[in-house]
Design brief:
Helices cover 30% and strands 29% of the residues. It is an alpha+beta fold and 216 residues long. The chain has a single domain, classed as Alpha-D-Glucose-1,6-Bisphosphate, Chain A, domain 4 (2-Layer Sandwich), CATH 3.30.530. Strands 1-7-6-5-4-3-2 form a 7-stranded antiparallel β-sheet. β4 and β5 form a beta hairpin.
Length: 216
């Protein structure tokens, strides 16, 4: 596992676009790598990893031991199939009491979906931000404030494949009109920033790069 972001610069992803500057609160940087035997194999596995990244509803199935489940919805909160796009939402179900603002779920909005490639390198990423429940619109329905972001990246440099998950500006959301939500969000966000979220995201990063899945 590596903990540097050099690949983002090398592959011309704008840092300000993919990763907002860390200003306050917690941050997370998860990086998992695997190496293919040759470039054709690496390109094939990149295609598989990208497909898994974009198959959001299947994240919990490819991530051994992850406790949350994820559902892709449209901008109205209706469950949708197909690829994610800007303006869609992800409905997150985590263990324990849910958010009243989110009808029992935490919600994020997809801000960026991007992919690019050349013969020697390729990348794709999704950036999300805590949002309101699109069906209720009663304030941020997530345990982090809306300033927080999460960025999910798959990239290839030659035969090296990398999965990265980066969290920025992770502060507890305690501005809900429901006191129970404020207490719940404080407890969940504290657990997340203390390391629990990093453990969960590491499982997802490993699942995205699972060669056995790619070969099945």
């Amino acid at each position: 596992m590596r903990n540097n972001l050099s690949g983002i610069d090398n592959m011309n992803i704008s840092n300000s676009q993919a990763l907002p500057p860390q200003q306050e609160g917690g941050q997370a940087d998860i990086v998992e790598t695997v190496r293919a035997s040759d470039n054709p194999e690496a390109r094939r596995f990149f295609v598989q990893a990208k497909a898994r990244l974009f198959d959001i509803a299947n994240w919990s199935n490819i991530s051994e031991g992850i406790s949350a489940s994820f559902t892709l919805t449209d901008k109205y909160g209706e469950i949708k199939a197909g690829l994610p796009k800007v303006g869609d939402h992800i409905r997150i179900n985590i263990p324990g009491p849910g958010s009243l603002a989110g009808e029992g779920y935490d919600w994020v909005r997809i801000e960026i979906v991007e992919e690019m490639g050349e013969p020697d390198w390729e990348f794709c990423f999704i950036k999300v931000r805590p949002s309101e429940d699109p069906a209720k619109k009663e304030g941020t329905a997530h345990f982090f404030e809306s300033q927080a972001t999460s960025t999910f990246i798959i990239r290839r440099e030659g035969t090296l494949l990398v999965a990265e998950i980066h969290g920025r500006n992770e502060k507890p959301n305690t501005s809900s009109k429901w006191l129970t939500d404020n207490i719940r969000n404080l407890l969940v966000s504290t657990a997340a920033t203390s390391g629990l979220a990093k453990i969960q995201w590491q499982k997802l990063a490993k699942g995205l790069l699972n060669f056995q899945l790619a070969m099945s």
